[in-house]
Each structure stands twice: as C-alpha cells, then as structure tokens.
Design goal:
The chain is an alpha+beta fold. The chain folds into 2 domains: 3-394, Purple Acid Phosphatase, chain A, domain 2 (4-Layer Sandwich); 413-619, 5'-Nucleotidase, C-terminal domain (5'-nucleotidase,  domain 2, Alpha-Beta Complex), CATH 3.90.780. It is 20% helix and 27% strand. The chain contains 13 helices and 33 strands. The strands form 8 sheets. An 8-stranded mixed β-sheet has the order 1-4-22-21-5-8-9-12, covered by helices on one side. A hairpin with a 2-residue loop joins strand 29 and strand 30 (555-556). Helix 1 runs antiparallel to helix 8 and helix 9 (432-445) crosses helix 13 (593-603). The radius of gyration is 25 Å and the shape is globular.
Length: 621
C-alpha cells in the first residue's frame, strides 16, 4: 500500500493544495503550509516494531556566514551560527539514529567573508555541524576539481592558509585550533562525476550508515547517493570542469543502488544538487504541482530505481516538501518524497525514515521544513535585532573571527547609488543592475590599451544580489555601497576578456538567449552596455526571427561589421550555453570584474550612479 498524507497544521499559507498529472503518468502533490508534515506510507509492519532514522538536511549555503538581512517568508532567517544551533538541537534530540547531509553548493558564489579565505570557513563550520555527507554542487567546481580535492583533504590553498587559526573539534568534544586548514570531517559524494584520467568517480558515489533497531534486532543500513546536475559544464567556467565527465543523474544513481544492494543496503536516499523552481509568488504560495511538473528533478525521478523513495534536492534555492508518483510500464507505481531547503541556511529539513525492524526496509517517510530564525523581530518590517539565544556559541566565534579579519576591506565605502539597482527583469529580460554592471565592464575595457571594447555583455546568473539604498551592512549611510556589498553582487572574481566579433556572430549570440537556439538548454538574457541596443521578438517561430535590428550608438550593425566585445572569462569560453563567444578572435585579458565595478563606482563621484532606464532591449511589435 502506498499512501500520501498531508498533516495540515494552522500556519501562514505557503503552499497551494493540489496535484498535477503529466502525460508521462507522474502525479505531484505537496504541502499546504510551512507547518505541514508530508508523509508517505509504503508498508505496514506486521507484529514487529519500527525504528526511526532522522535525516537533517539543507542545501545551497554558499558560504553565508553572516545573517545580514537574509530572510524568507517575511522573517529574518539564516546565518552560520543560527543554522548550527538548529542542526545541533535536532542532533541532540534524535541521538545516534541521525544522519546530517547537504545537497551541494556549500561553497562558491559566496560573500566576501568566505571568499577572501579560499572558501575554507564554510567547510570548517560544516565540520562543527557534524555533517556526514555532502553532494557536490556546481559551485564546488568553480576553481576546478583539484582545488575541491584540497577542500576535502586539507592543506594550504592559493592564499597560503590565511584563514588560520582554524577551529577544530576534538574526539572528546573539546575545541582547539590549528594553523593549517584541516580539510573536512565528512565525505563529498559524486556518483555522476567521473575523472577522465582514471574513469573513477571523483568522490565516492555513496556513503552508508548503519543503525540498530529499537528492539536490539538485526542492524540495518541506509545509503546516501550524492550527485550534481549533469549540465554542470554549461553553468561553470570550462576550466572548472576540465578533466571531468558529468553523467546522466538517474543512470548513475541506479548504478549506485545496484552496488549498494549487493552490500545489503535496502534504503537508498538520493542527495542531489538539482531540483525544481518555485512560482513567482514565493512569499505566499509554494505549489508543488506547478513548480515541479516538467522540472529537471521530475524528469530524473521518473527514471530512478523504485527502491529510491526519498530525494533530498537543491540547486534552485526553493523551499518545498513534495511527492512525485510515477507509473512504470508494468503498471506499478512508486511515490517518492522530495525536499528542498531554500538556500543560505534559512530553512532546515527534518526527514523521518520509519524502518521495519524485521526486514530493514523503509515502511514510511515524512518531512518537515522549518525557518532558521535569527532575530527577536516578529517580521522584517523593522531593522533586524539579533537573538543570541538562537546562536551556536562555537560557530559564532568562528564567524566573528572572519568578520573581524575582513571588516577593513568589506566595510570600505566605494560609492553611492541614487536608487535601488535590482535584478528584476523587464518583460524582455533587462535589469537595472545588469545595465550598470555591463556599463562598468565596458568602462574597464574600452580604452585602446585594455581592449578597445565597444559593447559589453554580462551573464545574469553572475549577478548574485541586489543593491539597495537601505543596505547598511557596513554601517554606511543610505545609498552608500561598500566593497563587501559589491562583492556579494559579483563574487566570482572573473577576469574581463575582449574579443573581436562580427555583426553576424553577435546576432547568433543573441539568438542563443532562447531555449533551443544554438544548443541553448535554458533561456537567459544577456545584460548589455549603454550605446548598444536591439529589437527582440521572443514569440518568433524561428531562432533567426527572434532578433531584429541591432544598433551601436544609433548606427545599424551590419553582419560584416567587426566589433570589439567585452565579456567575463566565464562567458568567453562558452559559459551558460553562449558558445558563440568562442568564435571571437584577437583575445585580450583585462581587469577582474569586481575591480571594474569598484572603479566604476568611484568614477561616478559624489552624485553616485543613477538608475538607468530599461530601454536597451526593445520589444518588437
């Protein structure tokens, strides 16, 4: 018997009830509110007891050590010390029958306080939270797999262990410090990431934990398979994934299941850095059916071995507790519980696996999500007031150590904005912050001695936060922008590159913004610099028809024109599916993107940067 129950509890509505059935016989259901428990029953043990195993999970922490103004569902939430307290409280509550896992992107695309120290602080904090396993995420590969191996194994990085002293927990529970980076106390898992030089997975495909039944019966095993999205090479700088092959997620997971079955593991859990998206109204609804139907994680779930009944997902920064029921060709069905814990440590997932003491098989599974509150505020309508009772003191000391070290740089005011600069797109995908960043990159590359660029392109996924006049992370005045805030917007330290491209190549490049054009797998709108404009026809039936007239400083760009074009090194080598950049010639390297942004702010002077009108990309009629 397979059943799905939603234990509805009174609370702020965060989900819309309902199910969705696709043409491929997949039914999706989910929670009605944040306080719901989503449960799936697989079998009812007869005359025998059960044992509960509790899995504590989160994803996409991205080195967010400080809570700052992080929030979700109208409440201040997140931050390392607060997440650590919530995790440790659950670990103490559940005791030995616990596993702690994360679904990737613990590091990378991180604020300055983590990035300045080679991403090591977040790994140290994961040690202190007693993580057991972590699937790799796409951002774990930002600096290449050799650097990721160092993150696990330890040793000094490019900045020569400048994050010392490192706080470590001794076997007896006491704390001490070391002068070298110790590596992780947990294992990265990568079932679908294979090294080209030896054909082996970069990290183990799975990890196994053994538990003991409540009645002192035969022990049973739970396996955790770790994976990242197969399309990682399309969203990571090519040098970051060099030497690796990313395999189909379901195929690799099923292979791991077969291997574990031979070792007596009857309960495989998939911990995967891939997921679904929320609807736009994230503050009011979380409709599993609408979010996951047709998503990458649904596609993967349809192909998984039936024994995988629980999926812990990530990547999309969404919060959900859902079920996906699929029908096999023989008519049998399997219902899978799937969770995701938003991002930045703002949400914590608590899954319960109920195991049949006699068979060691999964009898039921359930999950709840909770907000990791970090303040005394009832909501986010007033400035945040920290609540020390919600902090883990050991982790808070670690955070304070790095905050102190980074403060002189982070709190330095670099300039001013006249109004909010956001990532919010116009109907054709242009944003005010995207415009400003592209303008900064053009300014940094337009000189004859630095490339002579006439147009600059910026990938929207590389813009990681908004710039708001109310931000005061460094105690600055309204409208002032600090280096730390600028770094949070652009945390990758990409290098500017200038190439020569023809008008025809630029047209093909712009076509690649659309799904299915030039091999593009996800629709994305490049942000463009001032002086460049084009007309777009998104609903055109062909790729050729989607881009109309292109102009530069009012003059029409012809196919045969040669134009110097600036982009970051991520785009320069075909990142985000914009492979047409590879056709550019006469390449010149330039400044780091964050340096270009800082210089642009300083050049604006006391008046600061105005909010640009969204008129560079014009919708065709």
């Amino acid at each position: 018997m397979i059943g799905v129950s939603l234990a509805t509890v009174v609370g702020a509505p965060l989900a819309v009830a309902g199910t969705s059935t696709s043409a491929h016989a997949a039914t999706i259901a989910g929670a009605h509110s944040l306080t719901d428990k989503v449960s799936v029953t697989y079998q009812k043990p007869k005359n025998y007891g059960t044992t509960d195993v509790h899995v504590i999970a989160w994803n996409d922490f991205h080195g967010n050590l400080d809570p700052g103004t992080l929030n979700i569902y109208g409440k201040y939430a997140g931050g390392a010390a607060y997440l650590a307290k919530a995790v440790k409280d659950l670990q103490a509550k559940y005791g030995k029958n616990t596993a702690t896992v994360t679904a990737g992107d613990n590091i990378g695309a991180a604020p300055l306080v983590n990035s300045l120290f080679d991403q090591e602080p977040a790994e140290i904090i994961a040690n202190l939270m007693h993580v057991d396993y972590m699937s790799v995420g796409n951002h774990e590969f930002d600096k290449g797999y050799k650097e990721l191996l160092r993150m696990e194994r330890g040793g000094c990085g490019a900045s020569d262990c400048n994050a010392a002293p490192y706080t470590v927990e001794n076997p007896d529970g006491s704390m001490s410090t070391r002068q070298y980076y110790p590596g992780t106390n947990w294992r990265y898992l990568s079932a679908n990431v294979v090294r080209n030089d030896n054909g082996k997975t970069l990290f183990p495909a799975y990890g196994v934990k053994t538990y003991y039944p409540s009645d002192d019966g035969k022990p049973f095993k739970v396996g955790f398979i770790g994976e990242v999205l197969q399309s990682t090479p399309t969203i990571v700088t090519p040098t970051g994934v060099a030497g690796l092959t990313f395999q189909d997620e379901a195929t690799a997971a099923n292979k791991a299941v077969a291997d574990m079955k031979a070792k007596g593991v009857k309960i495989p859990i998939l911990v995967i850095h891939q997921g679904g998206f929320q609807t736009p109204a994230q503050t009011t609804t979380n409709n599993c059916a609408g979010n996951l139907a047709g998503s990458d994680i649904e596609t993967i779930a349809k192909k998984l071995d039936p024994s995988i009944k629980v999926i812990i997902s990530g990547h999309t920064h969404a919060e959900y507790r859902c079920t996906i029921t699929t029908t096999a060709s023989d008519g049998s069905t399997v219902t899978r519980l799937i969770t995701s814990a938003a991002s930045f440590g703002r949400i914590l997932s608590d899954l319960t696996l109920t195991v049949d003491d006699k068979t060691g098989e999964l009898a039921a599974a359930s999950a709840t999500n909770s907000v990791v509150a970090n303040s005394t505020n009832a909501d986010t309508k007033t400035p945040r007031v920290a609540d020390p009772t919600k902090q883990d003191p050991t982790v808070e000391k670690v955070v304070e150590q790095y905050d102190t070290a980074v403060a002189p740089l982070s709190n330095q005011v670099i300039g001013k904005i006249q109004g909010n600069l956001t990532r919010d797109p116009s109907p054709v995908g242009e944003s005010t912050l995207g415009d400003v960043i592209a303008d900064a990159q053009l300014a940094a590359t337009s000189g004859s001695d630095v490339g002579g660029a006439k147009i600059a392109f910026m990938n929207p996924g590389g813009i990681r936060a908004d710039m708001l006049t109310t931000d005061n992370t460094g105690g600055q005045q309204p409208g002032q922008v600090t280096y730390g805030e600028a770094f949070t917007v652009q945390p990758f330290a990409n290098v500017m590159t200038v190439k020569t491209m023809t008008g025809a190549q630029i047209r093909l490049l712009l076509q690649q913004q659309f799904l299915g054009c030039g091999g593009q797998t996800t629709a994305k709108t490049l942000q463009i610099s001032t002086g460049f404009s084009y007309t777009v026809y998104p609903s055109a039936a062909t790729c050729d028809g989607k881009i109309g007239t292109m102009t530069l400083n009012g003059a029409t760009i012809n196919d045969t024109d040669s134009i110097r074009v600036a982009m970051n090194n991520f785009l320069a080598t075909g990142g985000d599916g914009f492979t047409e950049f590879n056709q550019g010639t006469d390449t010149i390297g330039g400044a780091v993107d964050i340096d270009a942004l800082v210089a642009y702010f300083k050049a604006a002077g006391d008046n600061g940067i105005a909010v640009p009108p969204l008129n560079r990309i014009v919708a065709g009629s």
